[in-house]
Amino acid sequence: MKNKEPMRIALLGLGTVGYGVYEFIRAREDLQVACAMSLVVPEDVTCPIVKDIRDIWADETIDTVVEVIGGLHPAYEWVKGSLEAGKNVITANKLLIAAHYKELVSLALEKGVALRCTAAAGGGIPWLTSLKRCAEQEPVIRISGIMNGTTNFILDTMHTTGGSFDTALAEAQRLGYAEFDPTDDLNGADIRRKLVISSNIGYGCVLDEKEVATEGIEHITGEDIAAFRSMGRVCKLIAASRKLDHSVAAYIEPALVPPSMPESAIPTNYNLISLTGEHIGKQSFYGQGAGRYPTAYNVLQDCVDVSHGIRGFYTDRLEEAHVDNSTVYRHYYVRTKGDDSWLKARTESFLPCGVITEAVSVSEIHAWAKKRRELDPDCFIASLR
Amino acid sequence: MKNKEPMRIALLGLGTVGYGVYEFIRAREDLQVACAMSLVVPEDVTCPIVKDIRDIWADETIDTVVEVIGGLHPAYEWVKGSLEAGKNVITANKLLIAAHYKELVSLALEKGVALRCTAAAGGGIPWLTSLKRCAEQEPVIRISGIMNGTTNFILDTMHTTGGSFDTALAEAQRLGYAEFDPTDDLNGADIRRKLVISSNIGYGCVLDEKEVATEGIEHITGEDIAAFRSMGRVCKLIAASRKLDHSVAAYIEPALVPPSMPESAIPTNYNLISLTGEHIGKQSFYGQGAGRYPTAYNVLQDCVDVSHGIRGFYTDRLEEAHVDNSTVYRHYYVRTKGDDSWLKARTESFLPCGVITEAVSVSEIHAWAKKRRELDPDCFIASLR
User: Fold this and answer.
1) Are the beta carbons of A285 and B284 separated by less than 8 Å?
2) Which residues contact B121 (CB under 8 A, 6 or more apart)?
3) Can you tell me the distance from the alpha carbon of B118 to that of A263, in angstroms, rounded to the nearest whole number?
């Protein structure tokens, strides 16, 4: 590590997050944006703009590449090439890290460079660094939480106003809390990536995201919310995983939480993410899960850590593990049109617009819901906590 | 820093926390309890027991002293002497650090050794390390939270059961959540120490704990709680501070929080502590604020950090600052027997057992309450959030 001389950074992307990172670094003396790549360049950006990523790879004065362009391509090629060129890489790209976890982590470890992605899960919350810190001292046995601000905003708005899903989604889009195409947020794909990255780091494993049972909130209605309110519960989209002996339970689902759980009181687009350590018990981390400055802040923290000499990934354990949700049992709220013999046999009580089941395994009911949608596309399930 | 050889630790205290630290370190190879001092020594402790602290100071093979005896004496003399002898010091002693902050921090900085006290605020929550991490990157402008497990357990029990203060306190004592003499927890002295240490680190200042306006929960009644429930609010003992231009607002008081604030859902003896950074916004940290293993865990994390070469204190800024609560305005619930002209002039509405005031300054109402207790010792106030 060079002392006194600033760490020279190539910044890939000058969009919402990228420009926030640029602003933060501009105000510092220990870090320097040596050059940037971006299709659109804000007027007051004064660093050289590079057109070809290979110029960055060939520049030996550049220590570290910060990737904040998002998406899978060309982010994958650029990050992989940067690691191969011996550069440290800092990224906020959860899509990329969840999809190519083993390959990219192995490559960083092999090359002896840093790979950091703290902003990829929890936005501006120091979640992955805290998780790593705990996992180094004692076994992490559970991870769970509200890890998607868009869905939390929509659910919170529906609970607060009593309005419809469409109205809440439109409001989220108006305020910039939901993207123009919110599919990946609503169907759980976004939060699933964050759960996979977190579980991999916490348990030292490698999960295949396609194995994670996933139910989103796209089918929830104002009537569902009214029923939950009458039960004294709040609906939240929850990611959860548990370390088992030879596998990992991991799933995404709407959950009905009682007021005694802190998750019930997480407002608007905030996140709350928890780990449970063997001795330390449950620890939770709360803050803004997205937005220019919160996300840029965690990218900056990663830059500072790397400039202080931190190398490698959060963990060097890469044991492939399968997902097994057959041992986790919960009661579920289920709303579906028409009769179903499986559901009928497991119904414990009736609500105006749905039923409450006996305790069933997560794997069984998620599989049932997937199949049920062939007959009733609007079928909705939510577990009781 | 020696590589491979374990860091040799002198452990002062083998009580609840000390024995937990001993158990954690026994299982590791990078740390070693070289010797311990304790009046009572559990049977399975196999390290040498030292009778005179000067033997530890004179032993050049000992890097680090861990102080977990608690109390002001002899902890003060032992910690000070250890720093003077060039030892790193790790302590869980909030009483000691709050009372002798400037002297001990200055001494550690002067000697170039580590002084760490992560377990002193937030028990097992990585609060002080996260606060330091944020304060290094951007100005921290607010700190607040539930930082005392005893009072949270009592208030939570009163809300949940509808029972009296005495019953809840007895239950807390039965479960080990309150000490035999709970005075410092109930009157706010304990949480005040944690707020002072946190504010000092967050803002880079030195506060005098006696200047922090402090109202505890020792006068709260079941009738108060019933009134808060009818308002849809939950009573919590809150510590709060704000960085002002040339001073710091800092106070401890019962606060009535709405269900939309995560603070409302903090159960039993848990803590929730928050910081607000200029760009990053509010970040909160939740977990067990006390107990053998959570507290020992943060002591262990400090040991690991020091073994990795971390020195000094969380901050090296020691600017003395005065407390000024005259610019923070809130509405208050006030219950007092008999007439009072000041209160009458500021009353906005009436409840069965108390009144709600117009917005008044924290400094004014805390001063009023202190004076009012000369006439009505049971007077109780709580701010509305």
Assistant:
1) yes
2) B94, B127, B128, B147, B193, B194, B197, B198, B273
3) 26
Q: How confident is the model at residue B1 (pLDDT cuts 50, 70, 90)?
A: very low
Residue B2 a catalytic site member = no
Token representation of residue B101: 């902050």
CA A207 – CA A195 distance, rounded (Å):
10
Confirm or reject contact between A285 and chain B (CB < 8 A): yes
Q: Where are the beta strands (DSSP E) in chain B?
A: 7-12, 31-37, 64-67, 88-91, 115-116, 140-146, 205-206, 213-214, 234-243, 248-257, 270-277, 281-288, 319-320, 329-330, 332-335, 347-350, 355-357, 360-361, 380-384
pLDDT of residue A215: 98
Instruction: Please return the burial class of B3, using the count of CB atoms within 10 Å of its CB with bins 0-12, 13-18 and 19+.
Output: exposed
Chain B touched by A280 (CB under 8 Å)? yes
Test the B interface: residue of A23, A30, A229, A279 with most B CBs within 10 Å: A279
Q: How confident is the model at residue B2 (pLDDT cuts 50, 70, 90)?
A: very low
Say if CB A278 and CB A137 are below 8 A apart: no
The dihedrals phi and psi of A374, each to the nearest 5 degrees, come to: -65, -35
* pLDDT confidence of residue A2: 43
Cα of A6 to nearest chain B Cα, Å: 16
User: What is the nearest CA distance from B3 to chain A, expressed in angstroms?
Assistant: 17
Before A352, cis peptide (omega within 30)?
A: no
CA distances B327 to A79, A269, B204, Å, are 50, 30, 21
pLDDT tens-place string over residues B236-267: 999 999 999 999 999 999 999 999 899 999 99
Q: How far apart are CA A282 and CA A141, in angstroms?
A: 10
Q: Please give the structure tokens belonging to residue B150.
A: 């005893």
Distance CA B20, CA B26 (A): 10
Both structure tokens of A355 = 């039923």
Task: Report the pLDDT averaged over residues A313-319.
Answer: 97
Question: What does DSSP assign to residue A320?
Answer: E
Asked whether the predicted pLDDT for residue A185 surpasses 50, the reply is yes
Q: Which domains does chain A have, with CATH numbers?
A: 7-116 (3.40.50.720), 128-288+321-326 (3.30.360.10)
- What is the torsion angle, in degrees rounded to the nearest 10, for the CA atoms of residue B271, residue B272, residue B275 and residue B281? 170
- Omega within 30 of 0 (cis) for the link into A126: no
Which residue reads 């003499």 in tokens? B181
Strand ranges in B72-217 using DSSP code E only, listed in sequence order:
88-91, 115-116, 140-146, 205-206, 213-214
**Mean of pLDDT over chain B:** 96
pLDDT above 90: percentage of residues in chain A: 95
- Inter-chain touch A283–B137, beta carbons under 8 Å: no
SS3 content of chain B, % helix, strand, coil (to 5): 40, 25, 35
- Strand bridging mode A248-257 / A380-384: parallel
Beta-carbon neighbour count of residue A375 at 10 Å?
11
The predicted structure's pLDDT at residue A1: 41
pLDDT of residue B291: 87
Q: Residue B61 CB: number of other CB atoms within 10 A?
A: 8
Q: Model-level pTM?
A: 0.93
pLDDT tens figures, B255-307? 999 998 999 999 999 999 999 999 999 999 999 988 899 999 999 999 999 99
Q: Is A281 on the interface with B (CB under 8 A)?
A: yes
Q: HSE (CB half, 13 Å, CA atoms) of B229?
A: 14
Rounded-to-integer distance, Cα B217 and Cα B151, Å: 7
**Nearest alpha carbon to residue A131 among A282, A262, A244:** A282
What is the average per-residue pLDDT within A289-318?
Answer: 95
Min Cα distance B151 → chain A (Å) is 17
User: Is residue A293 within 8 angstroms of chain B, CB to CB?
Assistant: yes
The answer to whether A323 touches A212, Cβ cutoff 8 Å, is: yes
Which one is predicted more confidently, A3 or B120? B120
